[in-house]
């Protein structure tokens, strides 16, 4: 059995040790906010926080997560009580199809620099097929500083 903390809650996983973290989150823990794009570590769609750092959940076997702290997009804010960062994505059209948004939100939640150039660099591991990135950068730069310093 593998024990870990997901969104502040202790969770146990009994199953194949090399099952991918994204699959455990979605299939075993019911946290379907995390999305799979490429499945190869290239697009950033599946990004979650592992011990506070962004990581591609499509590349991580669950056996490496014993005792670790995972945060998914569900940790930011439930429907109706969105975080300032999520609201900023809404207000500034940072999402269109929304597939890239969960991963972007998790990485953006850890960015310390707030200028547009720093945001572009910080989010450079994320691919979006819809927005052209301008709205994403605007959403992050216009979100309130205290939330990004979480
Ligand atoms: S789905 Fe994991 S990086 Fe693309
Ligand atoms: S909003 Fe569609 S992939 Fe980014």
Which fold name corresponds to the CATH topology of the largest domain? Ubiquitin-like (UB roll)
Count all strands and give the number: 5
Order of helices and strands: EEHEEEHHHHH
The count of domains is 2
Instruction: Summarize model confidence as the mean pLDDT.
Output: 94
Largest sheet, described in full? 5 strands, mixed
Bound compounds: FE2/S2 (inorganic) cluster
Instruction: Determine the CATH superfamily of the largest domain.
Output: Beta-grasp domain
| Beta-strand content | 5-15%
The strand line-up of the biggest sheet is: 2-1-5-3-4
How far from one another are the termini?
Answer: 31 Å
- The CATH class of the largest domain: Alpha Beta
Examine the secondary-structure arrangement and name the CATH architecture of the largest domain: Roll
Could you say which overall geometry the principal axes of the C-alpha atoms support?
Answer: globular
Unreliable stretches, pLDDT < 50, 5 or more residues?
146-150
| Class from helix and strand fractions | alpha+beta
- Return Rg in Å: 15 Å
Assembly state (oligomeric) = single chain
Total of helices? 6
> Helical residue percent?
25-40%
